[in-house]
Structures are given as C-alpha cells and as structure tokens.
Amino acid sequence: MKIINLISDMQKESLAARLAKKTVGFVPTMGFLHEGHATLIEQARKENDIVVLSIFVNPLQFGQNEDFDAYPRDIARDEKIARELGVDYLFYPTIEEMYKEDRTTLITVEKRVDVLCGKKRPGHFDGVATVVMKLFQIVMPTQAYFGMKDAQQVAVIEGLISDYHLTVQLVRVNTIREEDGLAKSSRNVYLTPKEREEAPAIHQALQLGKSRLEQGASISETKEFVENYIKEHTASEIDYVEIYSYPNLKEVKEPRDGESLILAVAAKFSRARLIDNIVFSYTKGEN
C-alpha cells in the first residue's frame, strides 16, 4: 500500500491507472475505520483493479455546535486496517493541502437537504458536496462506494454526479447490520446494556412500517405506527420518522406502484443518536 499526502502525487497515480485502462474503486472516509468502511473497501476490491481509500476529516461539514477537534482519529490503526483489506493507495492529505487560503468557490446544495438530518444541519451537505467534488477530481475513480446507512448523503452525491455530468459511478452499498438487525455504527458503543437490547426495535419498526404501508395504510398512519412502535419498545426520544421519494427526497402524499421510497428514523438514546432507514420499491398489496 502506498500512502500519498499530496494532491499532485495522487492525481499522477490515478491518471496513470486510467490511461492503463485500469478501473479505480474509491472509498472516501473521515477515518477511524469500522466494519461499515471495511465492507465498502471489500466490495471495491472485488470490483476494481485498483482501490483508493481517502482519509480526510473535512472541516467544511462541521457546524457551529459540532466539535471538529473532538472527531476521533487514529491514523496508525487505519493504515493497518487498510493494508489488511488490500487497499492500493491511501490518500491522506492535510487541511492546508485540500483547502488553499485563496479558495474562491464552495458548492451549495439546493435540494435534498432540507429534510431528515440535513434539516438541523444547515450547510453540512455544502461541505460534503464540496469535498467529494474535490476528491473525485483528485482520485478520478471509475466507481465510488457509499453506504446506504447515510441515505441522504448518497442522494446528495448522486445529485452532484448528475448535475455536473461526472463520469464516476456511485455504488450504493447496503447497511451492515448486527445479527439482531441493529445498524452497525461507531455510536452503538455509547448505548447502555438496556438500550442495546432495545435498539433493534428501530429496524423492526421500519420493516413493519413498510409492510403496513404496502398493505394499504396511509403515509401518516405508517409514520404514526413506526413512531409508536419505537416508543413502546425503547426509552428513546424520537427525532423524526419520515417517508419521502428516493433519491429526490420529496414529500409523498400517496405512493405509486413501483415508486422508490425511503422510510427513515432518527432516535435519541441517553448518549447516542441512532439513524436508520430502508429504501424500497413500493408494491401495494405486498405482505
């Protein structure tokens, strides 16, 4: 594995790979790698000649009340994991390398950001879109791998690719789950033993909600059912339960057969806020 810190060096390696007609799989991360990242890397390894992993804690996507300095970092551990997973290039730039003092532009995301988690994080996805655009230009990937646990981020990046006619293909990777259905997350370690027992009810609620919607329940009835189920089975505080079209993230009054929908939840436990979702093609009458 080769570690690269300079943009010019990464571009040279990527350009050489593309000129040699090699496919480049790209996994952008902020480091502190976990099993979800490993799944993205493993899929990229299976599907490409070369795998590039980036680690960059992006200051542009942190809000005023979010502590950039407190974000967990362990580059030595991340390097070890990346090597074991067969990464070819680890791109690990500094802030000064990525954002020059005379930067003149910032991408503004106008749609798909005023709902779900983005509703309470103004400017967050502007920072995400800006850094992802930069990384795509640096790495020049054939395919880029993103996890569906953060489905709103996937929707925003798909919009970015479409709007700017980028040649990279975004690969959606399913959420990795524990055996009991809980979405794997670094935040799960902050759950108390009792909360950990309760937390799988979130995914159960999503599955039951999807079934009820397809059996004829209205959007409002489905959302109410999911919220009540989580309240009855956990001590968490519901942040939101929403149903939107996907990836457009627009309000749906009455779903159409074959329409792609997202049913998404955010729930606050004592020390952890958990998010989860399911994206599915609506089929009325399914059990």
Note the total helix count.
9
Low-confidence stretches: none
CATH topology of the largest domain: Rossmann fold
What is the general shape? globular
What distinguishing features does this structure have?
about 290 residues, alpha/beta, Rossmann fold, Pantoate--beta-alanine Ligase, Chain: A,domain 2, 2 domains, 9 helices, about 35% helix, globular
Set out the fold topology.
Blueprint: E1 2-4, H1 7-19, E2 24-29, H2 35-47, E3 50-55, H3 75-84, E4 89-91, H4 95-98, H5 124-139, E5 143-147, H6 151-163, E6 169-173, H7 193-198, H8 201-214, H9 219-233, E7 237-245, E8 260-268, E9 273-281
Parallel strand pairs: 1-4, 2-3, 2-5, 3-4, 5-6
Antiparallel strand pairs: 7-8, 8-9
Description:
The model has no long low-confidence stretch (mean pLDDT 95). This protein has two domains: 2-173, 3-Layer(aba) Sandwich (Rossmann fold), CATH 3.40.50.620; 186-281, Pantoate--beta-alanine Ligase, Chain: A,domain 2 (2-Layer Sandwich). It has 287 residues and is of the alpha/beta class. The longest helix is centred in the middle third of the chain and has 16 residues, at 124-139. Helix content is 36%, strand content 19%. The strands form two sheets. It has a six-stranded parallel beta sheet, with helices on both faces. It has a three-stranded antiparallel beta sheet with strand order 7-8-9, with helices on one face.
